[in-house]
Each structure stands twice: as structure tokens, then as C-alpha cells.
Amino acid sequence: MSREQGKIEPTEVAMARHLVACLAPGELALFDETVAAAPRGGQVKRRRDDPLGFGAVEAAAVVFTTVACGVATEVVKCLAEDAGRQAADRTKGWLRRLRRARQSTSPADEDAGAGAAVASLPSEVLADLRGVARRRALLLGLPEDRAELLADTVVVYLRERTDEG
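-> C-alpha cells emitted (165 positions)
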């Protein structure tokens, strides 16, 4: 199933809302409207007669929300790509074992391994995702100090969600 252009996924919205709540709570009042109007990835289409793509008042109020949406989209995309690689690696290993005519582990054991990857993200993965978030925030125009703070907040958010259980 493909995503509609201009829409972000619920996981991305949840992360972006958390980032805005932590780092720009004044923008929460316009969060839903901004998410609905902003293209996926936090990039705003600009009209020639409006250099910011919004009216001046709205632009001042939602700049961070747009960046948070772009960062959340990029981080979730990286997580999905990593999960896909891990699933492919597990499948390749399973096929190798099958070809060697060894007795493979039970499906329950395979599922347990998949759950462990989701339950807790390794430190190196969190560090990589922090870098992704920081680079995306800078690309979207956030100043260095705010990009660092945003990247740290992404890591805290992911740790809280993956260390549960």
C-alpha cells in the first residue's frame, strides 16, 4: 500500500507531536492543521507571491511543526528500512539452513527474534537515528543548537517507546 502524497503516517504524527510538545509547545494549537497542510517530509510548497508558503502569521506559528514532521518522517523511514534489512537477513539465514537440510528453529523462535529487534533498539542504531534526525533538521533550516536538541529528543522518544515491556 502506498502513502498518499502530502500525508504522513500515524507513527510519524505521534513522534512529531511529541517533538513539538517538548520543544515548541506553543505550536500544538495548530499542529493538526499544519500536519494536514504540510507535504510529507516537512517540505513546504511555496507560491511565488508568498515566499514562506503560508501567511506570515501562520508561518511564524508553525515553523517547528513542519521541521518536526520532516524529521519524524525521515526517522521512521530509516527504522522501516532497517527492519526490512533485518527481516531479509533472517529470511536469508532461514533459507540457508533449509538448503543445508538442517532442522530450522521453530517459527515461535523466529518471531521472538523479530520482537526483540522492535522491543529494544541497540545504542548504535539510536546513534545513527540521532544523526539522521540532526541532519534532516539542519537541512530543513533549524539552527545547529535546536537541531541537536531535536535529535536528542528523538532518541529519548525512541528509547521510551522501545524499552517498554
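The chain has a mean pLDDT of 75.
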